[in-house]
Amino acid sequence: MARQEHWLPLSAGGACGRVRARPGWRISLVDQAGEPRDDRGVQPAFNSAFKPAFSFAFNGPFTAPSHRLKNPMQLASVVFYGRSGEQALAMFNLEGDLEQWRDARVLDCPGGPGSLSARLRGLVGEVVAVDPLYALPEEELEQRALADLERTMAGLRSSPTLRPDFDLEACREEHIQALQIFLEDRRRHPEHYRNASLPELPFPDQSFDLVLSGHLLFAYAPLRDGGLSSSDAFDLDWHRLALSELCRVSRRAVHLYPAHTIERVARRHPYATALLAELPPGWRGAFCASRYDQGHDGCTDALQLERITAATSRPSAAGSA
Ligand SMILES: C[S@@+](CC[C@H](N)C(=O)[O-])C[C@H]1O[C@@H](n2cnc3c(N)ncnc32)[C@H](O)[C@@H]1O
Q1: Model-level pTM?
Q2: Which domains does the chain have, with CATH numbers?
């Protein structure tokens, strides 16, 4: 059986209690970069003396070598990792196309520590970003984003999925700048950063005109299905629910990126092809080449969906509920 890891973050201001490993499993204390912090193996109890920056990793079973060694970009959890507004506009093919969304309500889900909201603010009617980690205070968000950035960069430096000429250092700088712009924008507009998780969003039907979703669907499909996840949490059934929820809250359009596998020579993602063939009633969609370059060759498509039945008039408060 392949080795698995489950992460229990201790980021909610410390924790007090007992953790017990199932037979054949081991619990270890790691820091945010996934580095071991305690070599006692089993840690039977923990208390608030541990810094909130640490996590427990439940590792096991230990009967087979880790697949992780063969594929450094395997991720046990979704990283809090964000692109710049310019990168996101390229991802979703919106550069030069913003005029038509001038009065639109736009949802960015997940927003992560990216600066898309800041880039769109003032150019569209309203922009709301959603992420489960927005519940955290600013200092923790920043620490988490920086740790996840370094963890991801370490994986990417040795990843066979990137073109050798891809400039990772420039990419790292862009992420750091995006993070600073995100933190500043969230400080100024806290009400536009909402804590929520797919596949259930706390918004009425059709409360946004345009819904954007980058680097969660398809990217975090299980490894065997062309994504990054070492777990099955984001399987095809989860994707069905998540896409249906994104369509529910949109009046006019949903743009998703990537719609391709995470491989050196990327292919159209099999889940994207499956979901395009079974869109919710009243929707149609198409793959579109994306201008965003994250270092893959091959097909780097985005998926764009539009509502073809008449949209209802917009509810007055996108943020209600
Ligand atoms: C790799 S980041 C992508 C951020 C941004 N959209 C981009 O393209 O740069 C993925 C984000 O998904 C968030 N996330 C994880 N599980 C989620 C869920 N069930 N629903 C919504 N967001 C989730 C994570 O907190 C993380 O910030």
Answers
A1: 0.79
A2: 4-65 (no CATH), 85-307 (3.40.50.150)
